[in-house]
Amino acid sequence: MAENQRVLSGMRPTGRLHLGHHRVVESWIELTKKYDAYFFSADWHALTTKFDETESLRVNKRQIVIDWLSAGLDPEKCHIFHQSDIKEHAELHVLFSMITPLSWLERVPTYKGQLAAFQEKGKDIATYGFLGYPLLMAVDILMYRPIGVPVGEDQLPHVEFCRELVRRFHHLYDCEVFPEPSSIFSKIETLPGTDNRKMSKSYDNCIYLSSTAAEVKDKVWQMVTDPARIRKTDPGHPEVCAVYTYQGFFNKEEQPEICACCKAGTIGCGECKKKLTEKINAFLDPIRERRAELETHPTMLDEIIESGNTAARAVAQETMEMVRDAIRV
Ligand code: SF4
Fold this sequence. Notes:
Elements: E1 6-11, H1 19-34, E2 36-41, H2 43-50, H3 57-70, E3 78-82, H4 88-97, H5 102-106, H6 109-120, H7 128-131, H8 133-142, E4 148-151, H9 156-173, E5 182-185, H10 213-221, H11 242-250, H12 255-264, H13 269-296, H14 298-327
Parallel strand pairs: 1-2, 2-3, 4-5
Helix pairs in contact: 3-13, 4-8, 4-14, 8-9, 10-13, 11-13
The chain binds iron/sulfur cluster.
């Protein structure tokens, strides 16, 4: 793909980001090296399932941006904005909703699954907004007429949805407004939770980018190790141990030696965890420093978001001019 073309990605501001998210931000940083990149906090999306839990939404919106910036996203090399600050998203959503067949929304693979999962937890999310969330996602993307969207495999149907919508819009109004966005695969190695399950807030198995050194120590101390190892001299099985998996991410140089010593029963789990704690804390220290700076200078954050909003709004207004002309509204 040619340089200086737009790409876009976003995250729902539903709480603190963890180490697993850091890997996503790293892939975003890579995108900023090649493209004109836009990143947004998808606060309206958070409402599709958490419409009744909005107490922390404003705080979370700021915090997610602080997390991105602390993790190394450079606001000089991309545009960072809040979805709800660009009201054109709502207008395009209404206009696209007029031409989107209901069956397209109902057949989105995650729709029925998520409805059932929330139902089990005693929450009814069978709302108009939740049914329409793939359309809102398509709007968020198409508004910026990007050439591509970074995706994991589970998000492919959403990009396909966008492409179908583009074709339908062009066919109905005999126009060429949007490029059909392609999927940009970013290879992100998944970091498991501290219990070796999927890293998730609901499992309480995350280490957050904003965790203090003491919190990291506690979390690592609770990590699941090889249950067959009672004494230091018992030969271990590092492949079943979460600490060992993490050593592979944060202590790559020492991981082979740890593997050999664990198998030979010459390193204790306490010592192994101590090494990991030090490595994770060393990894998080510069992130903590950047966070502290942003938290003590809130206007810096306001300016970054305002500048991102301005850039996003300019593209959005241009898109809406073309859309209104095409529809003749
Ligand atoms: S020594 Fe390390 S790798 Fe081996 S079981 Fe203990 S914590 Fe896991």
